[in-house]
Every structure is written in structure tokens, then in C-alpha cells.
Design brief:
Blueprint (H helix, E strand, L loop, with lengths): L5 H18 L21 H14 L6 H10 L5 H14 L8
Length: 101
């Protein structure tokens, strides 16, 4: 678990924007927090899993995919901004994310 700082917020946003720009072959300036991952970027759930793995390594997170799945069922992510917010919660709370509702 990590304390969320402005530096971490900036890093998470940059990684997610760069990831979608590269994976979806979209100019990064065309991506915003309101961009819909599926309809605007043709993204999919595998991309979400890839991002989770990137952040697990980057921040040495101890979280199980089934925990993230349970959280995501109750809090579906549609936009880039929602994904950023969820990732920050995962970094901050790890497996305790289900208790943070």
C-alpha cells in the first residue's frame, strides 16, 4: 500500500495515457479523462489486465486479480479518468479495496 501523492497521481495518469496511445494507435493529445475506453479507443478487458500488471510491478503491489474483479463488478470503469481513479485506489488500498466503499 502506498500513500497517494501528486507525483503518483501524475505517474499513473501518464502511464495510462501513454499505454492507450500506443496500444490503440491514437495520438496522446486525443485522449482525455472523459475518453471512453471501449467506444472511443476500441480498448478491451485484456488492456485493463495489462495495466494492472504494469502497476503491480511498478509499485510492488500485493493484490489478487479476483479482488480487482469483485471491485470492478460493483464499480465498472468506462472512461480513462475512471480507470485512473480505480488504479489509484488499488495502489493505495491493495487487497483492502473491497473494504473501501
Amino acid at each position: 500500500m502506498a500513500q497517494i501523492t501528486d507525483k503518483i497521481k501524475k505517474e499513473v495518469k501518464e502511464v495510462i495515457y501513454e499505454f492507450f496511445a500506443e496500444e490503440c494507435e491514437t495520438p496522446i493529445e486525443d485522449i482525455s479523462d472523459k475518453t471512453n475506453i471501449i467506444s472511443d479507443l476500441d480498448g478491451d478487458s485484456l488492456m485493463f489486465l495489462e495495466l494492472i500488471e504494469i502497476f503491480k510491478k511498478k509499485y510492488s503491489l500485493n493484490i489478487e486479480l479476483k479482488t480487482i474483479g469483485k471491485y470492478a463488478v460493483k464499480h465498472p470503469v468506462k472512461t480513462v479518468g475512471e480507470l485512473i481513479n480505480m488504479q489509484l485506489l488499488i495502489i493505495e488500498h491493495e487487497n483492502n479495496i473491497l473494504n473501501f466503499e
